[in-house]
């Protein structure tokens, strides 16, 4: 197994270089680079200033000509200075080699449009993405595994039929539409939902009766978070992340439930299960002592990849709806602005994490079922 892991680790290097090379090459042919965007912005400001001043007909003085020169185009000297500042004065091959050399030491440079390092920018956005990725994945597994096992045991019954209908509907609803529905119902929309039990009202901080639920609409914590007690901080954090996490869990919960059910159904029909039942073992002993390990192999071993998928794929719409400043919005803004240090820096980190998580998924397979030996199949 050690030789297999070593080979997989060594394969990370050429794979990562290939990912970066393909994306770097594609960006060379994409119109509207950072230089063009800055030029367009300056030209637009020049047009706006000229319209405000009413300079439309007769030519103005020399000062006016200098002030509004950006409206007719930027001087070539200024364009050349921008290209040198952004490194576009070098050949593409040299720029790529310099970039990869810096990335090997995790030096991702400075964001062109944020005036801060890419590392600090990513660190600032990480809490939101980790929150959505981790809690959504855990919630999906906590719901999907018991429900999937129950559906497999009661396959074909009314319970299986009705829950399948609910799962299909949940999978079909877009996450952003479900997020809007949650906002309307629980975050100050047109409806007022009251907790009917004193215990629940006290748990979420609504001691008075007939108090409507009002979930927060912005951020992960309240402004007075530092002044709260430990239990108060836990409640405040949970109160803020509840709706976004529910929104991102919807699709993965449906997929994992059906995957769990089908895995159990495949194992239940095998010969060793019939043999265990013939020996007189209790049904729970058969299910959880024999079937569970084999059926849950693909589900549990896929946890790292599932988390990474939710972590990277957190919808920009979800972050926008709940006013969360995460990596999704950062990536979208970087793509729109052609902010190459942010684009390539995050791509490098995400690509590296994806490749490492692939190795962790294989290790999870071995941990769940020690009979699996990747080393014997490597030849």
Describe the model.
- By secondary structure, the protein is mostly helical.
- It folds into 2 domains: 32-74; 119-377, MetI-like fold, CATH 1.10.3720.10.
- The protein is 72% helix and 0% strand.
- The chain is built from 18 helices and no strands.
- The protein has helices spanning 2-27, 34-53, 62-67, 76-86, 92-104, 118-153, 158-172, 175-186, 198-203, 230-268, 271-278, 283-295, 297-301, 303-313, 316-321, 327-337, 340-368, 374-377.
- Helix 6 crosses helix 14, helix 7 (158-172) packs across helix 10 and helix 16 runs antiparallel to helix 17 (340-368).
- It is globular, with a radius of gyration of 28 Å.
- The two termini are 13 Å apart.
- Mean pLDDT is 76; it is low at 56-72.
- It is found in: Cell membrane.
- This is Microcin C ABC transporter permease YejB.
- One of its GO terms (biological process) is microcin transport.
Judged by helices, strands and strand pairing, the structural class is mainly alpha
Main beta sheet, described?
none
Uncertain ranges: 56-72
What's the CATH H-level superfamily name of the largest domain? MetI-like
Strand % is under 5%
State the domain count. Answer: 2
In DSSP terms (H or I, runs of 4 or more residues), the helix count works out at: 18
How would you sum up the global shape? globular
Topology, number of strands: 0
End-to-end Cα distance, whole Å, is 13 Å
Compute the CA-based radius of gyration. Answer: 28 Å
Order of helices and strands: HHHHHHHHHHHHHHHHHH
For the record, the CATH class of the largest domain is Mainly Alpha
> In percent, how helical is the residue content?
over 70%
Pfam families: BPD_transp_1
GO cellular component, one term: plasma membrane
Keywords: Cell membrane, Membrane, Transmembrane, Transmembrane helix, Transport
Subcellular location: Cell membrane
């Amino acid at each position: 197994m050690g030789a297999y892991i070593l080979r997989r680790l060594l394969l990370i290097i050429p794979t990562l270089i290939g990912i970066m090379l393909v994306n770097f090459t594609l960006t060379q042919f994409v119109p509207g680079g950072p230089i063009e965007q800055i030029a367009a912005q300056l030209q637009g400001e020049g047009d706006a200033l000229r319209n405000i001043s009413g300079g439309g007909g007769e030519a103005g003085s020399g000062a006016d000509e200098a002030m509004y020169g950006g409206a007719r185009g930027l001087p070539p000297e200024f364009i050349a200075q921008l290209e040198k500042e952004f490194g576009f004065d070098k050949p593409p091959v040299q720029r790529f080699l310099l970039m990869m050399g810096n990335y090997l030491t995790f030096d991702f440079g400075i964001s062109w449009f944020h005036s801060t390092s890419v590392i600090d920018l990513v660190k600032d956005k990480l809490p939101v993405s980790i929150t959505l990725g981790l809690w959504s994945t855990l919630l999906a597994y906590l719901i999907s595994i018991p429900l999937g096992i129950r559906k497999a045991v009661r396959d074909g019954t009314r319970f299986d039929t009705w829950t399948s209908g609910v799962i299909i509907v949940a999978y079909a609803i877009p996450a952003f539409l479900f997020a809007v529905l949650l906002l309307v119902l629980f975050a100050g929309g047109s409806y007022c939902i009251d907790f009917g039990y004193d215990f629940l009202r006290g748990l979420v901080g609504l001691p008075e009766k007939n108090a409507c639920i009002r979930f927060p609409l912005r951020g992960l914590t309240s402004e007075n978070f530092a002044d709260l007690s430990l239990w108060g901080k836990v409640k405040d954090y949970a109160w803020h992340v509840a709706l976004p996490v529910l929104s991102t869990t919807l699709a993965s919960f449906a997929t994992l439930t059906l995957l769990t059910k089908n895995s159990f159904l495949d194992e239940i029909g095998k010969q060793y299960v019939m043999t265990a039942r013939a020996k007189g073992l209790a049904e729970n002993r058969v299910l959880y002592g024999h079937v569970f390990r084999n059926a849950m192999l693909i589900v549990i071993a896929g946890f790292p990849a599932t988390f990474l998928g939710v972590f990277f794929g957190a919808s920009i719409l979800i972050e926008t709806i709940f006013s969360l400043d995460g990596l999704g919005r950062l990536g979208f803004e970087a793509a729109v602005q052609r902010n190459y240090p942010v684009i390539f820096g995050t791509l490098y980190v995400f690509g590296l994490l994806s490749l490492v998580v692939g190795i962790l998924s294989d290790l999870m397979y071995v941990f769940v079922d020690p009979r699996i030996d990747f080393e014997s199949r490597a030849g």
